Amino acid sequence: MFRIGKEEIDAVTRVIESKQLFKINKGLRETEHAEEEMREIFGAEHALFMTSGHAALVSALIAMGVGPGDEVIVPAYTYIATAMAVVAAGAMPVIVEADETLTISPEAIEKSITKHTKAIMPVHIQGFPCDMDAITAIAKKHGLFVLEDACQADGGTYKGKRLGTIGTAGALSFNYFKVISAGEGGALLTNDKSIADKALIYHDSSAVAFFGEQLKDVNVEPFCGNEYRVGEISSAILRVQLGRMDGILDDLKRVKKTVVDAISDVATLVPTNDPDGGCATTLALRFDTEAEARAFATAEGVNGTVPFDTGKHVYTNWTPIMNKTGALNPLMDPFKMEANKDIVPDYRADMCPKTLDYLSRTVYMMMNPDWTKEEIDAKIAVIRKALAK
């Protein structure tokens, strides 16, 4: 979270004073309005606010009909929740290489498609846009769904279109560590009414048919799902944050551009699929060796991070996935299901060497939209000094 203040406090106060904290009410209707505003801001026909980005991914996969016997292609570099969403749907995550942009490699996607492939899950990691032209072309060629994991890219764009709205469906996250936050929360975006209707039922099957008129225009027969419903307090906070989002992104881009322009003669930047569309939360530099990357990251004042070290964001650290422990009850474990017996992947720590190499030679520096000119100049001086060593 980058910015929060009195407006969020006032929004929460209004909800509490209304005494209408449940999602369906005849009072402020914060959740209803939050979804309306997301549709307008992101340019999607349907938006569902729910408890997390992971919940949105799972709901979307279920709504797409993904299940046992299906494969879903995911990148080797993403938070474990991406792969776990596939397992939650009963399907098999097929882990493929990231390319030099640190996003999923279209070439690796193409090579991994089989007759069992049902969907591709590109992840806009650190707000870096994936090559959505190539990915959507591959999906169209093979008749596959595209589920964008835009959980680290709230508000970002690819060629002018909001991330999360380019594929069949997309997921956003609003937890504490994202561009905007409601503390926790996520959203599913789609232009496909069938997917929206099924996700609506799945994400709140215990209440959607019993409160209000949520199924008024839905022709799908209700089925058992989960309970990812949010309350009015989270929605009130999110509405304020949505209003802050583009201002935060504009300032992040201004700060990052100033830094990049000042160091481009001495630094090697990680390439990007859309220089203008990324969220600019992260400055990513590439080095020739891991030793050089680590020396820079630990230089005085740099405060850099080597993404190879970021735990559950790297496939080698996805312990439940790598160990094929898909559920506590073995009868509910997709890795042990009869429908998946011929498609259980052979996960190995060395299966995506290009990804591991890129991650080990990259350094991240986080940008701050509220840095003053003096703070930006100081950061530039630190970078130049560290690179001169």
> Roughly what is the average pLDDT, rounded to an integer?
97
Termini distance? Answer: 34 Å
Oligomer: single chain
Poorly predicted sequence stretches spanning 5 or more consecutive residues: none
CATH architecture annotation name of the domain at 6-242: 3-Layer(aba) Sandwich
Q: Count the strands?
A: 11
Approximately how much helix is present in the residues? 25-40%
Strand order of the largest sheet: 1-9-8-5-4-2-3
What can be said about the biggest beta sheet?
Answer: 7 strands, mixed
Tell the overall outline: globular
Q: Give the count of helical stretches.
A: 12
Overview of the molecule:
With 389 residues, the chain is α/β, with parallel strands linked by helices. It has a domain of 237 residues: 3-Layer(aba) Sandwich (Aspartate Aminotransferase, domain 2), CATH 3.40.640.10. It is built from 12 helices and 11 strands. A 7-stranded mixed sheet has the order 1-9-8-5-4-2-3, with helices on both faces. β2, α4 and β3 form a beta-alpha-beta unit. α2 runs parallel beside α8 and α3 packs parallel to α4. The protein is globular, with a radius of gyration of 21 Å. The mean pLDDT is 97.
